Amino acid sequence: MNKRGFSIRGRLRKMMKCICSGEQLRVDEIIPSSESLATRDYSASGYSSRAGDNERKPDTSNIEEAESSLRESGFLNYEEARALLGRLEYQKGNIEAALHVFEGIDIAAVTPKMKLSIARRCELHRRRSQSEAIPPMSMHAVSLLIEAIFLKAKSLQALGRFGEAAQSCKVILDTVESALPEGLPENFAADCKLLETLNKAVELLPELWKLAGSPQEAILSYRQALLHNWNLDMETATKIEKEFAIFLLYSGSDASPPNLRSQMEGSFVPRNNIEEAILLLMILLRKFVLKRIAWDPSIIDHLSFALSVSGELRTLAHQVELLLPGIMERKERFSTLALCYHGEGEDMVALNLLRNLLNNRDNPDCTLELLLASKICGENVDCTDEGTDYAHKALSKLQGRCKQMASVANCLLGVSLSAKSRSSPSDYDRILRQYEALEALETAERTMIDRDPNVLFHLSLENAEQRKLDAALHYARQLLKIEAGSSVKGWILLARILSAQKQFEDAECVINAAMDQTGKWDQGELLRTKAKLQIAQGRLKNAIETYTHLLAVLQVRNKNFRVGKQLLKNRANHHRRLEMETWHDLANVYTSLSQWRDAEVCLSKSKAIGSHSASRWHSTGLLYEAKGLHKEALKSFGKALDVEPSHVPSLISTATVLRKLSDQSLPAVRSFLTDALRIDRTNPSAWYNLGLVCKAEMGASAVEATECFEAAAFLQETAPVEPFR
User: Is a pLDDT exceeding 90 seen at residue 179?
Assistant: First the structure.
């Protein structure tokens, strides 16, 4: 190409005439040297030759793009010229001027040409043949126009027109995807900026839809970015996967399952937001394990949340265990694993992990871990001493620090002391531990800054167990007020306290009010308590109707959730136990009405749910006892104790049947009753039967029998329809 030709003014006139008329500028009419193109672009984009302007130079990439288009196609058409001028205005920061230039490009007209050019160019590369028809546009021209569409989207974004920006950006991806439905080949557009622009557009589109308030479109664009082969670099692909996972977890929008064009048989297809987010985060974790990306701590944080809310705590523990040492700090690793196993119900595994961590002197600040260890120990009768030690250590570390955490520590101390009192061998030790437990819980209530429902619940529960019913009622009402009636266990505790005060009608009204504020699937425990209140009032037919309604709700619920979302495993087990215990309660009601056949049907239903149940064997024994078959009843009670040696009702029933069978077995009867009272000191039936044994024994103290009867009478007057705890 000749370096000599028109003057600067003449070349500028030609270009502006081209832009205004849409005509093509021929190679032989323009000198496309670096110098002449630079001068032309410089003048056309509004620069002047005033003093101080000589030092300002435009981006030389415009020159290179123009020269490439000229070499390949022999002309620089109207759209390409506008793309160059728009880019210059955008680079100068003149967003509105750039948008005005870009809007002059007829995107609808050039899109089919771009599709055809991309498709033919890739076909030529695959066949390595020039026999096919020449593409209507050069790849540099395609790259230039796609960049113009992208910069138009960026300009619209800067002006706050997010919906229009998203639509403009979407044109790029739809054009390339329809031209190359199988994805971009490896060497696609290696010699121009097209691939770089595509990467930017793929990353930008979901963000634009989010800004436009279109979450479903954002989800579809994320999937388009990840499911189509765009030849994304690792950094961009990783960023998109992470951002998509975060959006799925926290946006509050329900995503429909992805519609995959093709997939391997048996491959996993996510059914909801959580599953799709977990899949993405697991892919990111896999990339890190393969050393393709650097470690990002937020990945495990988001994965922890996703797996926790979906009930897959064991899977989370497995993923944490797979991480190489040093990736997570030792304290964080052990704490996370302990929380996972505690959530899965494997408390001893969790406690051993915490012991391992807390015994290491290199971890001085482990207050939260101490509180978790104390909580686990407080729920295990064999670890109550250890639980109180952990709570005391936490309190010593919290002196002068967070009062709310100190309140939690005092609450856990009270819970551990209360558990310890129930297993104390002597009355003195038991009373002392009960006093200390109540004192710790009252301290927790005084020191809490924000009202803690958990503290109030345990304070009410401890007062109720110590038969301080007025105080228990006061705290139970406070609990309901703070929780605004949102907790089922708060309603049930209040109803049990009222039943202990023999206010059965009021207790039933409380249950009815609770059912009005509770979802249908969460009414199981409420209905069971209501049935027991009706039994206490002698309304056995009403109780049968309530139990029947409860069983119908449970069965419908089970059918619905087999088809729907998966339940958390511990909740599923809870509802299975509730259904089984309801069959036992109904069998006992039929037994009391001498309806043997109905009772047997109920027990057979229970056996289908779980064959190894101490409660079922106990109900079977009561049925035999009511029929007068004492030996068969004794065998059933024995099987119940084989399943659960600490089953108090079976211990008492065994003692009762033995006493009826023979006066020679009084020492064995006393032994069973003593074991029952060691486990449950507040059982009035155990005290009453022990009084009968003392009365029948030769040489036994009448005072001892009287004390047993007095204890039984006092406890019976304050006994709830079902145990407080």
Answer: no
Establish how many alpha carbons lie within 13 A of residue 355's alpha carbon, considering only the half-sphere containing its beta carbon: 12
CA 196 from chain centre, in angstroms, equals 37
pLDDT at 311 over 70: yes
For the segment 71-102, what is each residue's pLDDT rounded down to a tens digit? 444 445 778 888 888 999 999 999 999 999 98
pLDDT, tens digit, 9 for 90 and up, residues 630-665: 999 999 999 999 999 989 999 999 999 988 887 667
Angle between helices 78-92 and 139-158 (to 10 degrees): 40
Q: What is the pLDDT of residue 520?
A: 76
DSSP string, 620-636: HHHHHHHTT-HHHHHHH
Phi-psi region of 46 (alpha: psi -120 to 50; beta: other; left: phi over 0): left
**What residues contact 382, with CB distance under 8 A and at least 6 apart?**
none
Instruction: State pTM to two decimals.
Output: 0.75
Alpha-carbon distance of 175 to 109, in angstroms, equals 12
Cα–Cα nearest to 669, from 685, 681, 653, 649:
653
- Contact at 8 Å (CB) between 70 and 27? yes
What residues have CB less than 8 Å from 410, skipping those under 6 apart? 391, 395, 440, 441, 443, 444, 447
CA distance 22 to 140: 19
Q: How far apart are CA 534 and CA 528, in angstroms?
A: 10
Task: State the Cα–Cα distance between residues 510 and 504, nearest whole angstrom.
Answer: 10
What pLDDT, on the 0 to 100 scale, is given for residue 561? 58
Calpha distance 201→170 (Å, rounded): 8
What sign for the dihedral angle of Cα 713, 718, 723, 725? negative
Alpha helix stretches (DSSP H) within 180-292: 194-211, 215-227, 234-250, 273-289
Per-residue buried b or exposed e for 156-187, using 16+ beta carbons within 10 Å of the residue's own CB: bbeeebbebbbbbbbbbbebbbebbeeebeee
Check whether 461 has a pLDDT greater than 60.
yes
- The H or E element spanning position 76 is strand 75-76
pLDDT at 650: 93
* Phi, psi (degrees; rounded to nearest 5) at 33: -75, 165
Alpha carbon distance 97, 328 (integer Å): 51
Taking the C-alpha atoms of residue 284 and residue 292, their distance in angstroms, rounded to an integer, is 9
